[in-house]
Design a protein that fits this description.
Layout lengths: L2 H9 L5 E5 L10 E4 L1 H7 L3 H4 L14 H12 L4 E8 L5 E12 L5 E10 L24 H9 L16
Bound molecules: flavin mononucleotide.
The site of flavin mononucleotide has 20 residues, from strand 1, helix 4, strand 3, strand 4 and strand 5.
């Protein structure tokens, strides 16, 4: 089973937006091979219209070029990018997105895909808060095992977590 097949099987009803970029580098950039329903909901588009697109369609006037340059450098170096971007939905409305993007590597360490966990930040960054509760817009209510596993590993909360998938078989 490939990493993509595993993600497809487990992530379809996750509460966090999940988008996977394919390994083939088009001249204009790699394209989306998978997005879950929560990602479609987050970006305000039908998931089927997202597949095959380059993930720049969410950018607009207030998307900071400096942050995109940092993102670009991380991708080029095969490193994780964890940051905040101003994204735009299909209807033109903007939202603040927490983007946690990391490479998925094969057993021999080649980058096979990039996967990004994305969600809307609804509380102003820097505002003191005792917990993450209420900081993010819930996308959908779900109690599926994949989302629970993400919660357990605290993906999107702590920078030290690495999702490791053995794609050798
Ligand atoms: C998995 C993945 C998810 C991404 N999600 C977003 C996003 O939500 N918003 C955005 O502006 N860029 C996103 N990008 C980044 C852009 O595709 C692109 O890498 C970024 O604009 C920097 O590259 P550029 O300098 O070639 O534009 C994503 C990239 C990857 C690989």
């Amino acid at each position: 089973m490939t990493a993509l097949e595993l993600i497809r099987a487990l992530a379809h009803d996750a509460t966090v937006g999940i988008v996977v970029i394919g390994p083939v580098i088009e001249p204009s950039g790699p394209t989306i091979v998978y997005a879950d329903l929560a990602f479609g909901q987050l970006v305000g588009r039908d998931v089927n219209t997202i597949i095959g697109q380059i993930p720049r369609f969410m950018q607009g006037k207030e998307t900071r070029r400096e942050t995109l340059d940092t993102f670009h450098r991380a991708l080029a170096a095969g490193e994780r990018f964890h940051g905040y971007l101003t994204n735009y939905r299909g209807d033109g409305s903007k939202y603040r997105a927490e983007v946690d993007c990391r490479p998925l590597r094969t057993a021999d360490c080649r980058i096979q895909n990039f996967i990004s966990f994305e969600r809307e930040v609804v509380r102003r960054i820097g505002r003191p808060t005792g917990s993450a509760a209420g900081r993010y817009e819930p996308v959908v209510i779900s109690d599926d095992p994949f989302t629970n596993a993400l919660r357990e590993f605290a993906i999107l909360e702590h920078a030290s977590v690495v999702l490791f998938l053995d794609t050798s078989s």
